[in-house]
C-alpha cells in the first residue's frame, strides 16, 4: 500500500511536470539573488554559501507543501484515504516520501551546481549535498504536519510557514553547520549524525502527528 | 471530604469559580509587584560591575521564566483537552497563549534594553535571546492557527497538536541554538558567566517571579471567563446570567 | 448490523438533528431523506467515522465504530459528493488506485471489464478531466463492483447520472442487498429498488 501511494503521487507529479520545475527554479532564483543583493565579493559569498543554499532549500520545500494534501482534499481522495483499512500514518509516510522525491531530490541534485557559483571547494560541495540529502526529507515530514493542520484554511499558505519554519530551525543549523565546519577544517560527522537522528525521529513521529492533524482537519 | 473536581470541569461552574478567584490573585499580584519593584529599585544595592542597568533583571528574568513555563503549561492543557476531549482544558490553553507571548516579548524587549549599555548593541545573537525569539514565533504560530480556524473544536485540537509538537521541539531547538552559538562564538558576546548575586537582589527577583505568577493566573482566568461566555453564548445558563444583569 | 444510538449533530451554534435512532440489518436498505441543509451528508459522514456525533454512538456489530478503526473500514465503502477521481489520471488508473485504497488490489484486466460494464468502454485510457460529470461519477461508482465490503454508504449516488446509469446502479444495489449486504443512501430522486425491507429515516 505504501508503494501504491508513492507510485500514484509520482505518477501525478509526472503528469504535472511544471509543478516540480517551479519549485526547482524558485530554489535556483533565490540562491542567485544573494550575490545581487550583497555584492559579488567571492570570499564573503563563499562564507555565506551554506546558509544561503540551506535557507533557499527550506523556503522551496515549504512553498511546495501546499500541494501535499490540498489537491487530494479538494477532489475527495483524502476522505477515501481516511476511510482506508490501511493505517493513515503509512499513507502519509508514502505521501511525504513522494513529496521529497519530487521536490527534495531535485534540490539536492542542483545544490552542487549552485555551490560552484559560490566557489565552494569540492569537499564542501560533497558535505553540502550529503547534508541536504539527510535534511530535506525531514523538511517534508515536519511540513506534512503543518500542511495537514492548515488544510482548507484561508491564508493557509502563509500560515503554514509560521507553523513550520520555527520547527525547521534545528535542521537548518546542523545542515548549514556541517558545511561550515568542513570549510573551517573541523570535524563535521557530529552534524551529519544529528541530521540522521532528526530524520529517524521524524520518520517515526511526524506521520503519526500528521495523521492526527488530518483527522482533526477533516472532521 | 473529597472535592468534586468534575463539577468544576464544566464551563458553567468554572465560570463562577474563576470569578471568585480572580480578585484574590489580582490583589496578591499587585501587592507582590509593589513589593518586588520597591526591593528592586530602592533596596537592592547597585551592582559594582553593571551599575544601575542590571535592575532590568527584576523584570527580565521573571518574564523569561514565565514565557517558557507558560508554553509548557499551555501544551499540557491543550494535550489534556485533545486526549480527554475536555473543552475547559482547551479553553485554558487558548487563554494562556497571549499571556505567554506577552512575557516572551517582554523578555526580548528588556533583554535588548539591557544589551544596549552592556554590549553596546540593541540585539546580540546570543543563544538565550535567539531561543526566546524562536519561542515567540512558536506562540505566534499557535495563536495564528487558532485564529484562522472558525470551528472552535477544530481550533482547539489543531492548536493542541501544534503546541505538543512545539513542546517536543523546544529542547531540540534550544540545544541546536546553543551549539550554533558556540560554533560562532567569535561573532557574539558571551553572557554565560552569571554574576554573583546579593541576597536582596535574589529576594527582589523571587518576589517579582511570584508577582508574575499571580498576575498570569488572574489574567488567564479572566480570559477563560471571556472565552467561556463567547463559546457558551447560546446556552441557557448564559441567558440566565444576562437576565439577572450579571453580564 | 449497523446501529445508531441517540445521534445528534451540531454545526457551530446550530443543532442539525438530535435523537436519531436506527438499526440496519443484513439485506436492508436505509434511505435518508430530508431537505437541503437538514444534515444528511453530516449523518453519512458520521456513519463513516469521518466525524464524531456531538451526542450518541454508532455501533457496527455491537462495537462502537470509533474503537474499531481499520476493522470497520474493511467492511465499509463510502462514496460521497466528491468522487475522488483525479483529473490527471485515466479512468483505469483512477479505478485501480481507488480500489487499492479501499483494500482491494485488482488486475488491469479486471478493472477494464468493470469499466466496460459501467458503460465506459473505449474511455478507459482517457484522463478523467476530459470525461463528463456523469462519466466521472460512473468511474467513482465502479468501485462498488470490485469492493467486497458489506456496508455501502452512498451520498447522492444517482446525481448527474443518465437513465441507463441510474438503472445500472439500482440493479447493483439490489444485487448487493440480495447477497446480504447493507446500503445507506441519500437521494432526491425516486428510486426503484426491491429490498427485503427499507428503513426510511426522515431528517427535519
| Number of domain units of chain B | 1
Give the largest interface pair and sizes: A-B, 28 and 28 residues
Poorly predicted ranges of chain B (pLDDT <50, ≥5 residues)?
Answer: 186-193
The biggest sheet of chain B, with number of strands, parallel, antiparallel or mixed sense and barrel status, is: none
Mean pLDDT of chain B: 86
What is the string of SSEs of chain C from the N terminus onward? EEEHEEHHEHHHHEHEE
Helix content of chain C: 25-40%
Strand content of chain C: 25-35%
Instruction: Kindly provide the radius of gyration of chain B, computed on alpha-carbon positions and rounded to a whole number of angstroms.
Output: 21 Å
Number of strands of chain C: 9
Question: Which labels suit this protein?
Answer:
heterotrimer; B: 247 residues; mainly alpha; flat; C: 204 residues; alpha/beta; 4-stranded antiparallel β-sheet; 8 helices; 9 strands; globular
Describe what is shown at a glance.
The complex is a heterotrimer of chains A (219), B (247) and C (204). With 219 residues, chain A is mostly helical. Chain A contains 9 helices and no strands.
Description:
- The complex is a heterotrimer of chains A (219), B (247) and C (204).
- With 219 residues, chain A is mainly α.
- Chain A has one domain (2-218).
- Helix content of chain A is 87%, strand content 0%.
- Chain A is built from 9 helices and no strands.
- In chain A, helix 2 (17-38) runs antiparallel to helix 3, helix 3 packs antiparallel against helix 8 (156-183) and helix 7 (122-149) packs antiparallel against helix 8 (156-183).
- With 247 residues, chain B is an all-alpha fold.
- Chain B has one domain (22-185, 200-237).
- Chain B is built from 8 helices and no strands.
- Chain B has helices at residues 5-8, 11-43, 57-84, 87-119, 127-148, 152-183, 199-231, 236-243.
- In chain B, helix 3 packs antiparallel against helix 4, helix 3 (57-84) packs across helix 6 (152-183) and helix 4 (87-119) packs parallel to helix 6.
- Chain B is flat and about 65 Å long.
- Chain C is an alpha/beta fold and 204 residues long.
- Chain C folds into 2 domains: 1-75 and 149-204, Rossmann fold; 86-147.
- Chain C is 33% helix and 27% strand.
- In chain C, the strands form 2 sheets. A 5-stranded parallel sheet of chain C has the order 6-7-8-3-9, with helices on both faces. Chain C has a 4-stranded antiparallel sheet with strand order 2-1-4-5.
- The model of chain C has no long low-confidence stretch (mean pLDDT 88).
- Chains in contact: A-B, A-C, B-C.
- The A-C interface holds A 1, 4, 8, 11-12, 15-16, 74-77, 79-87, 218-219 and C 48-52, 70-71, 73-74, 76, 78, 80-89, 93, 97-98, 100-103, 127.
Amino acid at each position: 500500500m505504501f508503494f501504491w501511494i508513492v507510485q500514484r503521487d509520482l505518477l501525478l507529479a509526472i503528469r504535472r511536470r511544471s509543478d516540480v520545475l517551479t519549485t526547482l527554479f524558485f530554489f535556483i532564483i533565490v540562491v542567485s539573488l544573494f550575490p545581487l543583493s550583497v555584492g559579488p565579493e567571492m570570499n564573503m559569498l563563499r562564507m555565506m554559501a551554506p546558509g544561503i543554499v540551506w535557507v533557499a532549500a527550506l523556503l522551496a520545500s515549504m512553498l511546495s507543501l501546499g500541494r501535499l494534501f490540498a489537491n487530494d482534499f479538494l477532489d475527495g481522495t483524502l476522505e477515501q484515504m481516511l476511510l482506508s483499512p490501511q493505517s493513515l500514518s503509512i499513507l502519509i509516510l508514502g505521501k511525504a516520501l513522494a513529496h521529497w522525491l519530487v521536490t527534495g531530490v531535485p534540490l539536492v541534485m542542483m545544490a552542487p551546481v549552485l555551490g560552484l557559483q559560490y566557489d565552494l571547494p569540492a569537499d564542501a560541495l560533497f558535505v553540502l549535498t550529503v547534508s541536504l540529502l539527510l535534511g530535506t526529507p525531514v523538511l517534508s515530514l515536519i511540513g506534512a504536519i503543518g500542511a495537514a493542520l492548515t488544510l482548507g484554511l484561508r491564508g493557509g499558505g502563509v500560515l503554514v510557514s509560521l507553523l513550520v519554519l520555527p520547527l525547521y530551525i534545528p535542521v537548518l543549523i546542523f545542515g548549514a553547520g556541517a558545511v561550515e565546519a568542513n570549510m573551517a577544517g573541523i570535524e563535521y560527522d557530529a552534524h551529519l549524525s544529528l541530521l540522521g537522528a532528526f530524520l529517524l525521529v521524524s520518520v517515526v513521529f511526524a506521520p503519526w502527528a500528521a495523521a492526527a492533524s488530518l483527522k482533526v482537519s477533516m472532521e | 471530604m473529597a472535592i468534586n473536581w468534575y463539577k468544576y470541569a464544566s464551563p458553567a461552574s468554572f465560570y463562577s469559580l474563576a470569578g471568585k478567584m480572580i480578585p484574590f490573585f489580582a490583589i496578591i499580584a499587585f501587592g507582590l509587584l509593589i513589593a518586588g519593584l520597591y526591593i528592586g529599585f530602592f533596596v537592592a544595592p547597585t551592582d559594582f560591575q553593571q551599575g544601575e542597568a542590571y535592575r532590568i533583571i527584576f523584570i527580565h528574568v521573571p518574564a523569561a521564566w514565565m514565557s517558557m513555563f507558560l508554553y509548557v503549561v499551555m501544551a499540557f492543557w491543550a494535550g489534556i483537552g485533545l486526549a480527554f476531549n475536555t473543552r475547559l482544558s482547551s479553553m485554558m490553553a487558548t487563554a494562556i497563549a497571549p499571556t505567554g507571548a506577552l512575557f516572551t516579548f517582554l523578555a526580548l524587549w528588556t533583554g535588548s534594553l539591557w544589551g544596549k549599555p552592556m554590549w553596546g548593541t540593541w540585539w546580540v545573537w546570543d543563544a538565550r535571546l535567539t531561543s526566546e525569539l524562536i519561542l515567540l514565533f512558536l506562540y505566534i504560530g499557535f495563536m495564528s492557527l487558532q485564529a484562522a480556524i472558525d470551528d472552535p473544536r477544530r481550533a482547539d485540537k489543531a492548536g493542541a497538536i501544534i503546541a505538543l509538537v512545539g513542546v517536543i521541539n523546544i529542547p531540540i531547538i534550544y540545544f541546536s541554538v546553543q551549539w550554533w552559538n558556540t560554533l560562532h562564538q567569535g561573532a557574539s558576546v558571551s553572557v554565560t558567566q552569571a554574576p554573583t548575586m546579593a541576597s536582596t537582589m535574589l529576594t527582589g527577583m523571587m518576589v517579582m517571579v511570584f508577582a508574575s505568577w499571580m498576575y498570569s493566573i488572574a489574567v488567564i482566568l479572566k480570559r477563560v471567563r471571556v472565552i467561556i461566555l463567547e463559546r457558551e453564548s447560546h446556552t441557557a445558563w448564559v441567558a440566565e446570567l444576562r437576565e439577572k444583569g450579571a453580564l | 448490523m449497523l446501529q445508531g444510538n441517540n445521534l445528534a449533530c451540531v454545526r457551530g451554534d446550530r443543532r442539525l438533528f438530535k435523537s436519531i435512532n436506527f438499526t440496519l440489518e443484513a439485506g436492508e436498505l436505509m434511505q435518508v431523506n430530508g431537505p437541503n441543509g437538514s444534515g444528511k451528508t453530516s449523518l453519512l459522514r458520521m456513519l463513516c467515522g469521518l466525524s464524531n456525533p456531538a451526542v450518541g454512538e454508532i455501533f457496527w456489530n455491537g462495537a462502537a465504530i470509533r474503537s474499531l478503526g481499520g476493522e470497520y473500514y474493511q467492511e465499509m465503502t463510502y462514496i460521497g459528493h466528491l468522487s475522488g477521481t483525479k483529473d490527471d489520471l485515466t479512468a483505469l488508473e483512477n479505478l485501480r488506485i481507488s480500489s487499492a485504497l479501499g483494500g482491494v488490489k485488482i488486475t488491469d484486466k479486471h478493472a477494464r471489464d468493470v469499466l466496460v460494464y459501467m458503460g465506459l468502454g473505449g474511455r478507459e485510457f482517457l484522463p478523467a478531466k476530459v470525461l463528463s460529470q456523469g462519466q466521472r461519477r460512473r468511474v467513482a461508482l465502479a468501485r462498488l463492483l470490485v469492493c467486497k465490503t458489506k456496508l455501502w454508504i452512498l451520498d447522492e449516488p444517482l446525481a448527474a447520472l443518465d437513465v441507463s446509469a441510474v438503472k445500472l446502479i439500482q440493479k447493483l444495489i439490489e444485487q448487493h442487498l440480495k447477497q446480504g449486504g447493507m446500503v445507506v443512501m441519500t437521494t432526491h430522486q425516486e428510486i426503484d429498488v426491491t429490498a427485503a425491507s427499507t428503513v426510511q429515516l426522515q431528517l427535519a
